[in-house]
Amino acid sequence: MTVTLKPVDAVLVGFGWTGAIMGQQLCDEGLSVVALERGPWRDTAADFATGFAQDELRYMWRHHLFQNVSYDTLTIRNNTSQQALPMRHLGSFLLGTGVGSGGVHWNGQIWRFLPSDFLTKSHNQQRYGRNAVTDYDLTVQDWGVTYDELEPHYDTFDKLCGTSGKAGNLRGQIQPGGNPFEGPRSNEYPTPAMAQTYAPTLFGQAAASLGRHPFPHPTGNLSQPYVNPLGAQLGECTYCGFCEKFGCGNYSKASPQTTVLPYLMAKPNFTLKTECEVLKVELTADRKRATGVTYVDSAGQEYFQPAEMVILSAYILQNVRLLLLSGIGEPYDPSTGKGQVGRNYAYQTMSSVNVFFDDKILNPFIGAGALATVIDDFNGDNFDHSGLGFIGGAYVAGMVTGGRPIEMIYTPQGTPAWGLEWKHAAARNYLRSFSISVHGSCMSHRGNYLDLDPTYRDTFGRPMLRMTFDFTDNEHKMSDYLTDRAAEVAKAMNPREIKLNRRTGSWSVVPYQTTHNTGGAIMGDNPGNSVVNKYLQVWGVPNVFSMGAGAFPQNAGYNPTGTVAALTYHAAAAIKSQYLKAPGALVQA
Amino acid sequence: MAGTAGAAVAAARHDGMLGGPPQTFTGAVPWQEGAADAPPGVSGTDFIFFTSAERAFIEAAVDRLIPPDPVGPGAVEAGVPFFLDHQLAGQFGQGQHYFLAGPWSKGTPQQGYQSRFSPAQLYRAAIPAIEKYVAATFNGAAFSKLAAADQDKVLKGLESGAINLDGGVDSATFFAMLLQNTREGYLSDPIYGGNKDMAAWKMIGFPGAHYDYKEWVTRHGERVPYPPVGFKGRPGWTER
């Protein structure tokens, strides 16, 4: 028997970064807001205390903070000729759950996309011709929002996090030491760049010797103490090397817990309910308006939460699934190209180059999630793609997130995976090696999409999400070209040897790559090419907003969180200034 | 709530497990004493999962995966069999973070783990199947009695999937899990029963759960002199 609850102004479905930001923005407007989170409460003192936070086995390999796939996962395949099977164990991406979700166990890599990244179709078409954006059956498109529109919101997120970095472009003036390719920033970073350890320093020197433009990675691992505009206090990072896949026990990594929750949780008009799984968004009979959401708690009780606004603030895979389960929009059909929901799913194209020294102790365990020296010379359209046969690019980073030894013992080319030879290679190389990361874009493709699986169901009896994805020729060519650029820098460091880890073959769910899934609920300038408008408002159901990287029409060569946050603030600003005064479509179809 | 009861509550409400009670939070960041989400370590020396035959296989196999020599400890010396035993007896062995419901198909290599077995079931099925193969191939011998070169040959056959096993076990799937779990036992914090005396960390030069490296960040190329430390300290510390 479903219990109907007291109506609220807004219900948040999922409580990570986008839920926390939207909750704060809407509560400050005086709205009554309920957040429904399917995982547990988590906070620094009890859950990531420094006495036990640095536990590689428990967090990385036993998935302690991640979504437990035993009762809800998705199905996967490379193409429509295959039968999709369940992702029975996390691997390629590490889905979050619980309060803060991926915002707890991210690295803190805070990027802005390039101005041209928001114009993927028109910009590349203009510079390289029509075929450049349609070859290989690519389905790239413009975002419908520009860098200039998002800049103030990127700035707000930097101030929330206290981002450490060095500006490369301040209001159009190129700044020494920063990224000269970035879009104009209205302000310098709130805190200075982190000090660099040996390996990133060597990387930067080698890159500069080749005429590249190295700069410190912008980071949410703070270089100094910081108090943000909400009054939340962050501490100076201790470089313990346990960010990625871990919670920070030192209040040094920007997360919903360290930047928003101390403020938001005290608001009398905000309520958080944990262990509550939203089953679907309920619609009026004419399907033009949401009435609220139905959810079930871990005690098995089902509730209907009526709400004036429904904000889908779960991870992209769950947001897209909820749209499909709720019958919002038309599901994408790859055979006809019709339908929008699930279309243009994309990912990130990762590769790396391992570098081995004999004469240099690198101390890889001195690390932080975004401790890196980076070159952006070959990202987006920062370089001439004429004749290369691909669009997109990558940043190349001499990065040391840590030296967690189960995951991060690098051994030279040809070393067996076990036996004395492996052990000797581990003993010889651990302190003297590191990895250069190549963080590549992923264009959207006609055959890559999300829909509902016809066979597998979760513990609630709902169809699982089905992911159909493979890397395209565009991605392989881009990744090979960029891996070669990384190898040039590696060789310029004069190491004993290097090892190239190219992105070859079909996408596999097994090895960890990155939790940067995008698309499926993409934004655009009309209902014929997108699920949401530039304010993340669902076309045709104007009181539903879908947050997150699901809105990316294709993925750029950067980590997504900065752009996810900027889009959330951009949506919140439109809701506050326009929607609340006249609820309805913010963009006319 | 404090002590053990608090820990039990913590265990239930963390980890996204079904069964954590639904909670409503309003008015403040909540605080609950005694509910820190500390890791469950292991104690004692008794094996609780492996049979004696299984244990003989495991000890022989992991010591070929990471053999002992003067450079550093072998897997047995590091306590990996004990680590594996307790991992398989606990939540990992039960497949707590695996989706194991049907229907089941072999799938492509890109689709990853597709067995119906939990990790504990996989070990339980794989070891006798391997012993059956070994007995048939090596005149009735057990794996632990083979010469090292023959043990390596068997392990390579499992790794490549060239050896077909009875009992519904995919040999490459089992080998991949055994190797991963062996590395885990060799290199994880000693609270889990492996990495005895942090000797594997000493061998590679990892200082362990060290909390603050600020003063070392810009001391490029210098060796950090700290001996490894685990969650329970280190052997060199004086016990009161």
Can you give keywords for this protein?
heterodimer, A: 589 residues, alpha/beta, FAD/NAD(P)-binding domain, 8-stranded mixed sheet, 6-stranded antiparallel sheet, 12 helices, 22 strands, B: 240 residues, mainly alpha, 7 helices
In short, what is this structure?
The complex is a heterodimer of chains A (589) and B (240). Chain A is α/β, with parallel strands linked by helices and 589 residues long.
Overall CATH architecture of chain A: 3-Layer(bba) Sandwich
Helix and strand run of chain B: HEHHHHHH
Q: Quote the CATH topology of chain A.
A: FAD/NAD(P)-binding domain
Principal-axis shape of chain A: globular
Q: What is the strand content of chain A?
A: 15-25%
The N- and C-terminal alpha carbons of chain A lie at a distance of 39 Å
Structural class determined from secondary elements of chain A? alpha/beta
| Percent helix range of chain A | 10-25%
Uncertain segments of chain B: 1-11
Oligomer: heterodimer
Radius of gyration of chain A: 23 Å
Largest interface: A-B, 99 and 88 residues
Rounded to an integer, what's the Rg of chain B over CA atoms?
A: 21 Å
Query: Counting H and I runs of at least 4 residues, what is the number of helices of chain B?
Result: 7
